[in-house]
Design goal:
370 residues; 8 strands; elongated; two-stranded antiparallel sheet; mainly alpha
């Protein structure tokens, strides 16, 4: 009874990860990668606009960043797991089969950043501002992408007796009967192994990192790439211990998986950047950096019809008052001109009168005596 209870508590794997619709294969891994990209773009749009960006700019930049990121992620995977594609009995052409899974996050971020830089340059957006805006969306997209690993029955850990252990089924190609864990169909639901669901551990961890970035960003108004650095530090911290639990084949460096070393180095770099970035001040205002004046355009003020009529009536009254003042001014000026015209005439008459009076008042000369 106890064994049955534990068995029922385990996590069952999907029967398959690929569905055929006519000649077109629909792969769960690809579907969840696409969903993750859509979520990252949608969330990034909202966050960039809150920083003074314009609608649609994240989509425009993603046109560059996403293809670069996919190519970089695949290159990193092929380089670090070259034994899967090169060597005796291997098929190198399968290195191009990205739909079969295998994307290295550090290659995706490194080359994706190059694409984002090109897009940001065309839009006049500093790359750190863009990186801060998309940080929580990227780590959420990673979490969604891990569901694709679940359908592929990959990236799991060692055996476990924990109740949330993941059941691994034997899958075969239905046409050839050859074992195919990636693209085949489960023979039955009898598990061939019960293992740690490291894909689930990383999924939960990534969502926690996304919440951490949002929380700290709101409290501290992170800017200058510090929100992105916090995401990188948080992700690598979890990736280090989760990577140590995985049992799939991987390239080893000094007996340790290469992704563990990379995670440690990137973690240190992200922490140093986060701390040193404090001297750069608070979050940038993209609108002000561009010279737009204000972070966001003010919302248009709606005016009711009654208010418009009242404004028009007041404007008409003001014009009428101005007209009356002009008429009164003209009348006053005319009266002043008439008074002015009268003054010189009166002055002339007074002057003439004075001269005549002077002449009459002058005494006559006495006759001269001999």
């Amino acid at each position: 009874m106890t064994g049955a209870t534990v068995f029922l508590a385990n996590i069952p794997s999907p029967d398959r990860g690929v569905w055929e619709i006519g000649p077109i294969p629909i792969r769960a891994y690809a579907i969840f990668i696409i969903i993750g990209i859509i979520v990252a773009i949608w969330w990034g749009e909202k966050r960039l606009q809150a920083r003074g960006g314009r609608p649609g700019e994240v989509v425009d930049i993603a046109v560059y960043a996403v293809p670069f990121g996919l190519i970089g992620g695949r290159l990193y995977h092929v380089i670090t797991d070259y034994h899967r594609y090169f060597g005796e009995g291997k098929n190198p052409i399968e290195a191009l089969y990205i739909w079969q899974g295998g994307l290295g996050i550090w290659g995706a971020i490194a080359l994706g950043a190059v694409g984002a830089w090109l897009g940001c340059k065309r839009k006049g957006i500093p790359l750190p501002v863009f990186a801060d805006a998309v940080a929580p969306g990227i780590v959420t997209a990673q979490a969604i992408g891990r569901i694709g690993n679940y359908f592929n029955q990959e990236l799991y850990g060692g055996p476990t007796t924990l109740p949330w252990g993941l059941e691994i089924y034997q899958r075969v190609n239905p046409e050839t009967g050859i074992a195919d864990q990636l693209s085949g169909i489960a023979v039955d639901h009898t598990p061939i192994a019960i293992v740690h669901p490291t894909f689930l551990y990383e999924l939960i961890w990534n969502l926690a990192v996304a919440l951490l970035v949002v929380f700290v960003d709101r409290k501290m108004r992170l800017g200058h790439g510090r929100a992105f650095a916090l995401y990188v530090a948080g992700y690598t911290l979890g990736r280090t211990w989760i990577e140590l639990m995985r049992t799939d084949d991987a390239t080893l460096v000094f007996g340790v998986r290469v992704n563990v070393w990379v995670s440690i180095l990137v973690f240190v770099g992200a922490v140093v950047y986060f701390i040193m970035g404090r001297s750069k001040g608070e979050r940038e205002d993209l609108a002000l950096l561009r010279g737009d004046g204000t972070p966001q355009d003010p919302a248009p003020i709606e005016v009711s019809e009654d208010a418009e009529d009242e404004a028009e009536a007041k404007e008409a009254e003001a014009k009428a008052a101005d007209s009356d003042e002009d008429d009164a001014g003209l009348d006053t000026k005319k009266a002043d001109d008439e008074e002015t015209a009268k003054v010189p005439a009166a002055a002339v008459e007074a002057k003439d009168g004075d001269e005549d009076s002077g002449k009459k008042a002058e005494p006559e000369a006495e006759p001269k005596k001999d």
